[in-house]
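Worked problem 6 (solution included).
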Amino acid sequence: MGQNEVLFERAQKTIPGGVNSPVRAFRQVGGVPRFVSRAKGPYFWDAEDKRYIDLIMSWGPMIVGHAHPEVVEAVQRAAETSFSYGAPTAGEIELAERICELMPSIEQVRMVSSGTEATMSALRLARGYTGRDLIIKFEGCYHGHADSLLVKAGSGLLTFADSTQNAPSSGGVPQDLVKHTLVLPYNDVSAIEEVFKKQGDQIAAVIIEPIAGNMNLIKASPEFLSAIRKLTSQYGSVLIYDEVMTGFRVALGGAQFLQGISPDLTCLGKVMGGGMPMAAFGGKKDIMSKLAPLGNVYQAGTLSGNPVAVASGLKTLEIVSRPGFYECLTGQTEKLMAGLKQAADEAKIPFAVDSVGGMFGFYFADQVPTSFEAVTQTNIEAFKKFFHAMLDQGVYLAPSAYEAGFTSIAHDNEVLDAIVAAARASFKQL
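Solution. The predicted structure is:
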């Protein structure tokens, strides 16, 4: 028995399913998870000291590569002054100012520790601000594991979810909460127009992944985004952009910069913490002023604005702000997708690819899907075989056909060539 198997067996005795986040369990693809011992640049090494090219990069945050020396130094320096104070620091202000500067739709921002905290708090704030209960989310979008949002959710939940319309995608979620969440098809303009016509004055917020990364990579169409922005403004509802994944990942100003949309609230995470547990939500000052201690919408967190995470985030944002960073990252990601597509075409396998900045998606289908339903109709069995073939070749993909992939600035041409060579060998096995 290999060391990964030994660890997985041991983990299952004290950790439910042997993992601390469900998609890590390899349930969709089968097999034994790789237990990581260390990582550097575009690579990680497992418990058996086998090296893999990492194409999830901690699900997005490691945009400058694993263990970047400048980030490591910033973290070490911060750690020497203690890990947490439970009191304000100058670093928090600096990070808040930087975020507001990079995303002009954010006038004020509140730090939290996870993406789930950010989306959950943004929803509560939207409800408090509008005095309404209803929220709209879209099928296949995952916004963390807060109760109101576990309805037709994406990500790891797609492996486990009940397909009944508006049924909770998780046990333990009261139907009473679910009734306040309306789930609509992604990229369906007429559906959202219809709902606003009927119930617009009851809708507190619309929350959306502007580029979905939790049902693989799906882009929102300009018409869809324009309709949402127009309707939320018209009916006084709050438009929440969940940029936990896309913020500073697809562009320095996030998806909202690329799309020319100014949301009312934005949720951030992942890259802004440089791999540390850190997230934030922010937006218009008149909405943010409803938060305690100024207003009656309560939100708090002992580790919010943690000094070590702030140091990691500030240094990461400094690196990604350097000239040419996103041009290089985008170019490398596009080059990788073109290489995979060419390898699939040579093997005569139906295969489509898409990417934005340092995020990508590939699909065993004739064309890029535009909705949750279209994603579920791609060839999942082919993906499973491809995943294991690539794993054997030393390339670590997301262990689910419903997850986007991620590159970093450390994925240079040599790394890309190795991935494409692995794909060429893997496609021959399908």
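Discussion: The chain is about 40% helix and 15% strand.
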